[in-house]
Amino acid sequence: MPIVYAGKDGYRDTVMLGGTLDEQAAVTIRVYSTGGWLKLTWPLGSKALGTYGVTWNGTTASGSKVAAGTYLAKATFKDALGHTRTIAGTFTVSRRQARWVDGHGFTNREHPGTFHQVDAATGHWVHQVPLPEYSKFDMGFGIAKASITSSRMFRVLIYCTQTWGDAWDVHRLKATYTYAAWK
Fold this sequence. Notes:
mainly beta, 5-stranded mixed beta sheet, 3-stranded antiparallel beta sheet
């Protein structure tokens, strides 16, 4: 069951309600409270074969916040022959908010190199991402769930090789991290 933390804090502020169509159909998505009250309707109209959906931020059509809790999303489809079908799924709206904290980093390393996450269970390097040789922009890497321990710790390694050649090949690599903590 997906969870949306419907606060403007940059952590799962929205939920995607949708899926994939096997044929063209008119699509309507509705959100209901656990008491059966209709909270929001999206008449998406005729959609072609492929993906469809809406992004919802936990507010009603008038912009007021819905209460935290479990909600039911229903998607109704009507094909070209007039046949209808409805599918439903639940998701949770939470009002919990995150605050973003900057972690420590290091400087004075040379590159190119590789960014590795460490699997918490095995200690092996996973999710290797090569660092570009002449990167002059910020790069972001998400931390995989397998790399986070039960005590919410994770370990990453940035392996940097010595760059031989002229002095213009020597660069500084600064690695910092940001994580979310509940307010």
